[in-house]
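hey so u asked for the seq, here:
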Amino acid sequence: MENQSEHIARLIKKLSDGSISKNERLELNTWIEQNPSRKKFIEQLNEHDSLFEDALEWIELEQQDKDPWIEKLTTSTIEKIHKLNDTKPKNRNIFNIKWLAAALILLFSLFSIYYFNYQKNEQKINNKIALENVKPGKYQANLLLPNGENIALSEDEDLLVISNDQTISYGSGKTILDLKEKFKPNENLSIEIPRAGHYKVQLQDGSKIWLNSESKINFPIKFSNERSVSLSGEAYFQVKKTINKSKNLLAFRVQTEGQSIEVTGTEFNVYAFKNESIKTTLVEGKVNIHSALQSISLIPNEQSILSNGGLEKSTIDVSTEISWKNNVFHFDETSLKSAMKQLSRWYDLEIIYKEGIPDSYFYGQFSRDQPLQEVLKILEEADVKFEFEFKNNKNYLIVLPQT
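ran it, structure tokens below
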């Protein structure tokens, strides 16, 4: 919708080219009579038709050149002022320059308002296009070797295999490299998953690990007397039972910040993101969890939460906690804050709460393969509204206050 400044500018243009109607002339006169300086401004413009036409040329220029039209207008107008200064009597020059400067200031005020609105509308269009292009996470990961070398893993594969003969290959059988030619068995490898990524790894002992977005795991090329890995982020473990030389079950340990998990053969999920409470959820078997203050054991369908060094456990429905492994969002009285953290990692978003975090909860499940735009439509059914903004090559999801 045309604002007042744009409308007046359009009437001035019509006055210049003689196309103004009787009613429009009355409207413009009303605007002029509201302020004596406006009347003088119009009179001065009428004395210099060519300058007036150049100034109003912004309408055509902005459609063609966008940003450069301001520079063109400025250069053209200033050149006109200098010419007038060279050809008119001194006293008249001062009078002309004052009003030409006033004309320029007013016109630029009008142009600035128009240009601001133009940019605002253009930003809305760019945001809409950017939102439509936000795709879900995919298979992507980086393998970090002991010498610091970084290998970007194929997005066409989903599984990395560390074999007993110390070669690394994909699940398809394609070999990546032979580790024993460069490194010792006790040296460590790391797999790092970026935002909007996930991957699987099969360790040398046959154990499998599913890694969620923004996660990292560190492990030796080959296990010796014990099996130990360290994790930050989220991972699902399927630990294979292994017997040592003494025919005893060899323990498998997962180290996270603040706790250690010990198992022999079992399946469990660990949620261990920085600055968040660590959650361990048991699916099969049994686990022992140790923190600085205490130790507890879990049986299937139990979850422990580490907070401030203490461990608490409860019985839960594990399907919600491990749904990501099956590429599904599963919300069951999930808080808005928790849901936004999942979306931020999976779609690589920066979350902004405009006026605090609304007290909202979500229910239901849907595929993580959906574009962000479709997911937001689902979440908005819970009366939560969002705005999307793309700037500085980042995606921002703005959570609006509830009305």
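The chain has three domains: 4-132, 138-321, 327-399. Residues 144 and 377 are 38 Å apart (CA to CA).
lmk if thats what u needed
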